[in-house]
Specification:
Elements: E1 17-22, E2 25-32, E3 35-40, E4 54-60, E5 68-77, E6 84-86, E7 103-104, H1 111-114, E8 125-129, E9 132-136
Antiparallel strand pairs: 1-2, 2-3, 3-7, 4-5, 5-6, 8-9
Amino acid sequence: MAYHVVAAVEDIPPGTRRVVDVRGRAIVVFNVDGEFYAMLNRCPHQGGDMSKGLLTVAVTSRQPGEYDYCPERKVVRCPWHSWEFDIRTGRSWCEPDRVRTRSFPTEVKQGAELVEGPYQAETFETTTKGSYVLVDV
């Protein structure tokens, strides 16, 4: 898998998200407290726009009437039918082995790390004759 530069870190501040196009795929990138997560911007159920979904924490229950919030497990809730997906893996909260939206690894790198070189500009032979500069193309 090849990494693609999709945004500068400051373009996606903590608590926000941004939809990017990578090779024709709409991918939503979330910044959750400085950690970046990316998933296909399409719910596997009926194609809801995951970038418009609520980002919340998972809720578990041992029995009716008892609820536990799991702040360490973030889920994105599809805006169409409220299906929930783990933001780290893209797996459905209810059926993790059967239903998932594709997630993508993310990485933050400094600009200097992205440079592959050496780059070389095309140059041309120059000469001077009298008061004129001539370029040989």
